[in-house]
Write a structure and sequence with these properties.
Helices cover 0% and strands 49% of the residues. By secondary structure, it is mainly beta. A five-stranded antiparallel beta sheet has the order 3-2-1-4-5, with no helix packed on it.
Length: 68
C-alpha cells in the first residue's frame, strides 16, 4: 500500500487528488471509497491507498485514513 496526503477533495463527486511521498499526483474517484467505510476526507489528511492496473492508467483503490 502507498501513503500520501489529500491535496484536494470534492464532497459532491467524492473525487480528488492525493500527493504521494514522491510528490506525484494521484487522482481518485468514487470507486476508491467502495468498502472503505469513509464518508469524507479533509485537505492535508494522510491516507493509505492501493494502486491497481498498469502505468500510466493506474487507479487508486481502497482508501484508508492513516491513524496516529
Amino acid at each position: 500500500m502507498g501513503q500520501g496526503t489529500i491535496k484536494s477533495y470534492d464532497v459532491e463527486t467524492r473525487s480528488g487528488v492525493i500527493i504521494d511521498d514522491a510528490k506525484n499526483e494521484l487522482f481518485f474517484d468514487l470507486e476508491s471509497f467502495r468498502g472503505s467505510g469513509l464518508r469524507e476526507l479533509r485537505l492535508g489528511q494522510r491516507v493509505n491507498y492501493l494502486l491497481v492496473g498498469d502505468p500510466p492508467r493506474q487507479k487508486v483503490r481502497e482508501l484508508q485514513i492513516v491513524t496516529m
